[in-house]
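Lecture 7 notes. Example A: sequence first, then its structure tokens.
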Amino acid sequence: MKIEEPWTEKYRPKTLDEILGRDYIVARLKSYVQNRSMPHMLFAGPAGVGKTTSALCLAQDLFGEYWYQNFQETNASDERGINVVREKIKNFARTKAIGGDFKIIFLDEADALTSDAQNALRRTMEIFARSCRFILSCNYSSKIIGPIQSRCAVFRFGPLDEKAILKMIDRISKNETLTLTKSGKKAIVYVSEGDMRKAVNTLQAAAFLEKEIDEELIYQVATKAKPVEIKEMIILALNGEFLKARNKLDTLLLKYGLSGEDILRQIHREIFTLDIDEEKKIKLVDVTGEHDFRLVEGSNERIQIEALLAKFAVI
């Protein structure tokens, strides 16, 4: 039995020219390729927005056929202690590059490194600066100590825009002979929230079930409620019809199997699309944030969401 390759790997860009939706960042990285030199870099941004892909494409454009020998990827969430800096990283950094002037060490999820490891790393970055360049990737740059940030050129990766995601989805649909409806495309953009990896994985999961993919199938695979259903529940609560809103919540919980946090996150997104006064939106966001905190602290999710709908009815 043949094992299907994840589409996130199958369609991963191989060169900087193939990267979508990152024109400004790609232009800066191309200048490093052209000059055959680069500084230490810090890639910061949410998951699935192209940080790892940009580092891999940069290495392939810089080193060509020797890129794999001159590139080491280490995931700091697996090896986060000081020993990985003292042993693994130093051993790779002190060896000579093949077919180039320097090597690249890509440290993924660098914000998971312990404080001791980060302090050891900053000295390593200085000592081996001539023979090795570091690319640190993280979700939260604030968790990287100041001395490391000051040694790096910082690149901020925001969520990808709708145009970039649709372009990739259309390319995959054409190559895999899938029929994707207009509503299906909108659903993928909605559930992905600017995360290309999530968009591609959702499309692949849907393609395993049907070759004709619509909105219904996407929300089923992504285990998310349709925006219109969440909006309907909010409007029922705002109109004072608490019991109807509560019944709608029960339907969503049974139909999609959503967790309390999932529903709260979708409620928060839909508040900004409501046709109500700005002042009311502020109040709705405020109470949503309060109940989100309660869920994080371990409160019962069903009771908290029902309490939230009750407060919406009062507002």
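Example B, a different protein, same format:
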Amino acid sequence: MAIPFDRSFHAPYEELQRLTPGIARLLAENPGPFTFKGTGVYVVGAQDVAVIDPGPDTPSHLEALKRALAGRRLTHILVTHTHSDHSPAAAPLKAWSGAATYGFGPHGAGKAEEGVKVEEGGDMAFVPDVRVKDGDVIEGRGFSFECVYTPGHTSNHMCYALAEERALFTGDHVMGWSTTVVTPPDGDMAAYMASLRKLLARDDAVLYPTHGGPVRDPKPFLKAYIDHRLDREAQILACLRDGVATIPAMVARMYADVDKRLHPAAARSVLAHLIQLEQEGRVTPDGAGATVRYRLVA
């Protein structure tokens, strides 16, 4: 089934908008092919507040955050993961407010045990004051978050479930406007699929992604997200059966109707699927580097 994306999202830049009595959002002015309209920074609470994914470290955005938080006490800074549109503002916001930062760990933390060198595109400077793991509870005055570990998009990706509203802040794990890019070596398709199924088994009433608007009917949306990935896997296997054996050729065929600016990212997701299929013993690579070709295992 098609994913029921909603791309009608509109919000003023760098202004705090109330979404519910306990949740507000400030949209950073960093639109792009991967950030959609920009990074949605969530502010949760009343007088004492938590900020989720403070966004990019730019002077205009930081000043807007400070204006939005004036008169309230920032006590918690929660980071879903360490891509450059999510975590860099955490350090200056902490210096301004004194609030502690929370996250699974620095970039690549979920792969550290495996000795995998992560890509350099992340925010390599972020190290949380408090490292949280799956099932941990973060409490403030008027709010309580359960930590839901969701590796896949990155190995340190953490979602946060707000108990008071049965709301799950999903970072980039699930987005209402687009699918999520999974880029090896830090991104992992097998882990990503397991994390999607983990969320499907939950009973959250609404998902709040960092990019785009909320997902108000999570279960069918998550099911469609999973089916989409299974469909991409089937397309890759069909490519191999037809002799389309390289990643560039697969991308040209599978993503013919997708903005070509996104083709490099699509190639990384195809690679992530191929790595999973190789681990499952279903495909094998011949050669290495740019010339690698893949074939089905008989």
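Note on Example B: The first strand starts at residue 16 and ends at 20. The chain has a mean pLDDT of 95.
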